[in-house]
Design goal:
Blueprint (H helix, E strand, L loop, with lengths): L1 H17 L5 E6 L6 E7 L2 E4 L10 E2 L5 H7 L2 E2 L1 H4 L7 E2 L3 H11 L9 E4 L2 H5 L32 E2 L5 E2 L4 E9 L5 E7 L5 E4 L14 E2 L1
């Protein structure tokens, strides 16, 4: 009986490991400004588990409020995002984002224009809601679980004319992969959906959106 229990325990540990339950967490310090970021390793990739908050010439705090940078990170133009990550890290490509999402959801469609995964959005969003005072996302029937450890927060966006919008509703992330002269592939999370979207339209290079860095 004891041998059987031991075997079951080993099987349970292996199941947790191979289904991603043992996501490794850590932290790094950006030598440029001394800020410390949490990290998470998923599969063969290590990502920042927080939005980048390194100040550059064309990056902004939402509504120009420093407190928003502390909570949501900064919003970057695409050109600035290309070189904003710390040494040893870089702005992920469309393919690197797809690898991450496939790790979380093997059924994800990496070539989608629209819904890439029906479930990865919820797995990556932070828990809690703004209304209940337990989180940053607006209340919905599909709250985040953050089972991935990526801790995606709804940092909103800055339009080229300087207007800010969609805070607490959406998180938009640049990739390094251009679609055409004006647009690039990006990922977008919605407060009311479990899904994660891959798209290239509606967000131009001169907008300010969030950045996640991946290790070289």
């Amino acid at each position: 009986m004891n041998k059987m229990k031991a075997c079951l325990l080993i099987m349970m540990v292996m199941l947790v490991f191979f289904t991603g339950g043992c996501n490794r967490k850590g932290e790094i310090t950006d030598e440029r400004d001394g800020q410390t970021y949490q990290t998470v390793t998923l599969g063969d990739q290590t990502w920042l588990a927080q939005n980048l908050n390194y100040e550059t010439d064309t990056s902004w705090c939402y509504e120009d409020a420093p407190a928003n940078c502390e909570t949501y990170g900064r919003l970057y133009t695409w050109e600035e995002a290309l070189t904003a990550c710390p040494a040893g890290w870089h702005l992920p490509s469309d393919e690197e984002w797809a690898t991450l999402i496939k790790y979380l959801d093997p059924k994800a469609d990496s070539n989608a224009v629209g819904v890439e995964s029906e479930i990865a959005g919820s797995m990556m969003k932070t828990r809690g809601t703004l209304e209940k005072g337990t989180g940053l996302w607006l209340d919905s029937d599909t709250p985040g679980t953050n089972s991935s450890g990526m801790s995606v927060v709804p940092g909103g966006a800055r339009w080229p004319d300087g207007a800010y919008l969609i805070l607490n509703m959406h998180a938009i992330y640049w990739t390094s992969t251009e679609y055409d002269a004006d647009t690039v592939w990006f990922r977008i999370f919605d407060y009311g959906l479990k899904a994660l979207y891959r798209d290239h339209s509606g967000v131009t290079k001169d907008m300010g959106v969030s950045v996640r860095c991946v290790m070289d």
